[in-house]
Write a structure and sequence with these properties.
The complex is a heterodimer of chains A (255) and B (288). Chain A has 2 helices and 19 strands. The two termini of chain A are 25 Å apart. Chain B is mostly beta strands and 288 residues long. Classes of the chains: A mainly beta (255), B mainly beta (288). Chains A and B meet through α1, β2, α2, β9 and β12 of A and α1, β2, β3, β8 and β9 of B. β12 of chain A pairs antiparallel with β3 of chain B, so a sheet runs across the interface.
Chain lengths: 255, 288
């Protein structure tokens, strides 16, 4: 960062800082993105990368846990894994009875057996398929910086003092579902707005609990042609995951 | 405070920070592609959109080793625009690079270099500007939010490593494409080499050259996808690998999945560049 950027950032009182000012990442085993799972008319899987093996270009054992939350942010299931290959795919249909119809999960390393000083960052790939299809469409992780400290789940992410307005580079359509995951330790107020030439019309407002997940979509009666979706909240990284459904297929992407 | 913004923006611009370009790979009859953009500032503390901007398509002329302008595109009344691969009569593996410019940009001017892109980000928010880069075949459509950071276009050489996580876990996938893309502002003709290796046996699935400012396209067939652990090694340049998986379902419809792989630095929360370098050294030494 150049000196003027540092000054400007300080003047803004760190408004755009994504991470909390003071954190000691050396004290944690791992940090993870926050991922969406779907258990409704879609099914989910996850490709878990093994950063210990990838660093050394050889198989190395990893013991990891996937921690699942329901849409209200309550922990609902954990899945323990142990493997040494460079990655592993986990099919969630095998334990779908333990999950909500949608929610979030993150990756936790229970115990470090290596002697490296790095903190692995799990950004993996979540896969989604329609219930009657075999083909997964993959998306990388959503900002989370979630970690476990002793038995508490925390996040290095920082909630801002003022609201941000996030307008993804997509046209708003009625066949879209927008999922927002709250990876912060506090609830966050969210608004889903319609953005037409920077004029916002509020469509929906909710308070999303910590580690909770919500879904927005627009109905035909409120749809305005040529408008953009907009998401408002006290976070500089409010990036919804979008599912755009077609006749027999779909697209999924981070915005 | 406004002055600090302005000064920082100028300094950022001279170092290529905060700017980015958008890639439009031309894949011929294999797949169609398109870029979707708006004139809205993506992430800001107050909704804002830029007026008087256009998108300009550029291409690198490999016979003359220089960049040239192809055409410009205007945002429509709702502030959106789509640029499709079908708008250009270009051969497969061509790379159209899109920049944002003020609407007084001179299309007819000779380019010494790929021009700076107008910064559509007027704050210090952590997100780079992205476009929606989509690929489609018949009714199947898949996209991801894409950008090519301007600072990467100044890197004259380097190496890229991408483990093939996105190649393995698909039942019944017909084939996948890896499109490795490098954009270089420097009018240098050095190219590089590209390999896709079965890392268990060390056998190459693909061995060939990689060319700057072009779409370096590799096709991986179902047999190799199902049975092998694959990784992409590129020598001589940095770039973005895009993985495009193609599937035909029981109704004989195509389905697609498109995503780019993380750079290895993303595996690490702290000292990411240091550990990325260690990782690349391990892999390149092991498979030299």
């Amino acid at each position: 960062m150049n000196p003027f950027e540092k000054i400007a950032r300080k003047l803004l009182l760190g408004k755009f800082d994504v991470y909390k000012a003071q954190y000691k990442y050396g004290s944690v085993n791992s940090v993870s993105d926050f991922f969406l799972y779907r258990n409704d008319n879609y099914r989910s899987c996850y490709i878990l990368e093994n950063p210990f093996a990838l660093l050394k270009a050889k198989h190395m054992e990893i013991e990891a846990t996937l921690v699942f939350f329901d849409k209200l942010g309550n922990k609902c299931f954990v899945k323990d894994l142990k493997f040494s290959s460079f990655d592993k795919a986990i099919d969630f249909s095998k334990f779908s009875n333990n999950l909500d119809d949608f929610g979030a999960f993150f990756v936790d390393i229970r115990e470090r057996k290596d002697k490296e000083n790095f903190v692995p960052n799990f950004r993996g790939y979540a896969g989604y398929r329609k219930k009657n299809s075999k083909f997964y469409s993959y998306v990388h992780g959503n900002f989370g910086a979630v970690y476990r400290e002793k038995n508490k789940i925390k996040s290095f992410g920082k909630i801002s003092k003022s609201n941000f307005f996030y307008t993804p580079q997509i046209e708003l359509k009625t066949n879209q579902e927008f999922f927002i995951l709250n990876s912060y330790e506090s609830p966050i107020e969210l608004k889903f707005n319609l953005n037409k030439s920077s004029k916002l019309t509020e469509l929906e407002k909710i308070v999303l609990p910590s580690f909770g997940t919500t879904k927005f979509s627009i109905c035909a009666s409120k749809f305005v042609r040529g408008s953009l979706p907009n998401f408002e909240g006290a976070s500089p990284v409010l990036r919804p995951l979008v599912f755009e459904s077609y006749e027999n297929t779909f697209d999924v992407f981070h915005t | 405070m406004k002055l600090a913004y302005k000064i920082a923006s100028i300094l950022r611009k001279t170092k290529g920070q905060g700017q980015c370009y958008f890639m439009l790979p031309i894949l011929g009859d294999l797949l169609n592609s398109e870029v979707f953009l708006t004139n809205s500032v993506q992430n800001t503390t107050k909704p804002f959109h830029f007026k008087n901007i256009i998108a300009v398509a550029h291409i690198f002329d490999h016979t003359k080793s220089n960049w040239k302008n192809l055409r410009s595109f205007n945002f429509d009344d709702s502030g959106c625009l789509i640029i499709k691969s079908s708008y250009f009569s270009l051969p497969i593996r061509s790379l159209v690079v899109i920049s944002i410019q003020k609407n007084n940009f001179d299309l007819s001017a000779n380019l010494e270099n790929l021009p700076d892109s107008f910064i559509k980000k007027n704050d210090f928010s952590p997100h780079t500007i992205r476009c929606r880069l989509g690929f489609y075949k018949k009714k199947a459509y898949s996209s991801y939010m894409s950008e090519y950071p301007s600072k990467m276009t100044f890197i004259p050489s380097g190496s890229s490593f991408s483990y093939g996580h996105l190649l393995k876990y698909q039942a019944g996938m017909i084939y996948s494409y890896i499109a490795f893309i490098n954009i270089s502002r420097l009018n240098l003709s050095q190219n590089g080499t590209m390999r896709v290796l079965d890392i268990d046996s060390g056998e190459p699935i693909f061995l060939g050259g990689s060319i700057k400012n072009k779409v370096n396209l590799i096709k991986v067939d179902a047999h190799d996808l199902k049975n092998k652990n694959l990784a992409l090694f590129v020598d001589g340049m940095v770039g973005v690998p895009i993985y495009i998986s193609v599937f035909k379902n029981s109704r004989n419809d195509f389905e697609l999945s498109v995503e780019h792989s993380h750079p290895p630095a993303e595996y690490f929360f702290n000292e990411a560049n240091k550990y990325q370098n260690i990782l690349k050294k391990c892999w390149f030494n092991k498979f030299s």
